[in-house]
Design a protein that fits this description.
ten-stranded antiparallel sheet, globular, Glucose Permease (Domain IIA), mainly beta
Length: 197
């Protein structure tokens, strides 16, 4: 993608977000900690609040995930927008708690404006992410009226399973101490024991 196309896409995205701010729901009683993750993956860039609606910042989080991954609605709501802006595809959903979530730079939309969606319902597929990005990701944003909020506040706490890395299984016949401290040599020898796991 050329520099001019990247700048045009970025400008179109700013205009798009500005238009959506004017039509976002006004009521504000966010259901913090109850939204599901729209995709599975690590947060590769966090929220950086802009100083004003048109200022620089990062109005959401980037969740790293392979191109074409399934995106689900983070909470029950009504699709406020689903379409192309500046050559990029976006979906925005209004939720009953006054929050509008946005799923940006996606590759496919399975929801249309006016659709009523439920929490966890498939709404599309991820794209490459921000124009010029090397790592594929979903940009997930949230706001109340004209104020952007950190989407991490809305999301359910992540499972610790994603942070625990189990040791690889050893091949049969490999001593259990490979990669660990070897047991002392004065240990009584006998038939192999399998109760050390």
């Amino acid at each position: 993608m050329t520099s001019g196309r990247i700048e045009s896409a970025a400008f179109a995205a700013v205009v798009f977000f500005s238009v959506l701010v004017a039509t976002a729901p006004a009521r504000a009683d966010p259901a913090y900690g109850t939204y599901v993750w729209p995709v599975v993956g690590p947060v590769i860039r966090g929220f950086e609040p802009p100083p004003d609606p048109y200022g620089p910042g990062h109005r959401g989080i980037d969740i790293g995930t392979p191109f074409g991954s399934t995106i689900v609605a983070a909470q029950d709501g009504t699709v406020a927008f689903a379409g192309w802006v500046g050559g990029s595809l976006f979906i925005s959903i209004d939720h009953d708690d006054g929050v509008r979530t946005t799923y940006s730079w996606i590759s496919a939309a399975d929801a249309r404006k006016g659709d009523v969606v439920t929490r966890g319902q498939v709404i599309g597929k991820t794209g490459q992410g921000h124009p010029g990005s090397i790592t594929p990701h979903l940009h997930f944003g949230a706001r109340i009226g004209t104020t952007y909020i950190d989407p991490m506040l809305l999301l359910e706490p992540g499972s610790v399973a994603g942070f625990i890395h189990l040791a690889p299984l050893l091949e049969q016949g490999t001593p259990f101490w490979v990669g660990q401290r070897r047991p002392p040599l004065d240990r009584p020898r006998g038939p192999p024991r399998h109760d050390h796991f």
